[in-house]
Amino acid sequence: MSSFDLTLLEHDNLGGTIYQKLCEALMKGAFKPNDRLKIRDLADRLGTSVTPVRDAILRLVQDQALVLRSPRDIRVPMLTRATYLEIRDIRVNLEGLAAARAAEQATPAQIEALESLLKRNEEAMAASNTALATELNQIFHFTVSEIADMPVLGDILRRLWLQMGPLIADVYGGAGRTMIDHHYPLMDAIRSHDGPAAARAIQADILLASGPILERIDGVCPEPLAV
């Protein structure tokens, strides 16, 4: 399990705050498939009692981001091939739409922010800092969605990344440039305000990354499993 920032929380809605913290950790790849989450350990790291942590965990189980095998065995699931392919195809369409809209309306400051994220991602990969590179990849994708200014679409993508984040993190370090190369034609399209080209670039990015992801899934679950 990777480390992530869980600072002492003081908030009226403590359970909701913890839920958001854990969501961010899942989306950014702080957890990997089959990682076991221990409520007491999380509560200690958060400086709180177990009750709000348990409430947040149960919400994530409802989101299908965690699996409750027993009260003492809470796991990050490994997606089945069928579930992954469904999520991938939804992402292809929705993130393609978001990229097209972002390209049409991106400001110079927003383009500069994306360029900075891509540069930092390259630096993290060069330094073999896979955890940081994985997090920056997620932030890059979400920043494109934010530039598109489509909050409903953004909420849907957030739920998909709750399930996808740990799996992407699991393969990111070994996938080489597969996970980043198509971010460059995407940036070219956004600079040119070419919506269709931006959609094609991010769709190619998602589809190319599916190769190592499917290899990972098939290596763990060679036979189809019921969802």
TrEMBL record:
Residues 12-79 form the HTH gntR-type domain. SMART domains: FCD, HTH_GNTR. GO terms for molecular function: DNA binding; DNA-binding transcription factor activity. InterPro entries: GntR_C (IPR011711), TF_FadR/GntR_C (IPR008920), Tscrpt_reg_HTH_GntR (IPR000524), WH-like_DNA-bd_sf (IPR036388), WH_DNA-bd_sf (IPR036390). Keywords: DNA-binding, Transcription, Transcription regulation. This is GntR family transcriptional regulator. Pfam families: FCD (PF07729), GntR (PF00392). Gene3D superfamilies: GntR ligand-binding domain-like, Winged helix-like DNA-binding domain superfamily/Winged helix DNA-binding domain.
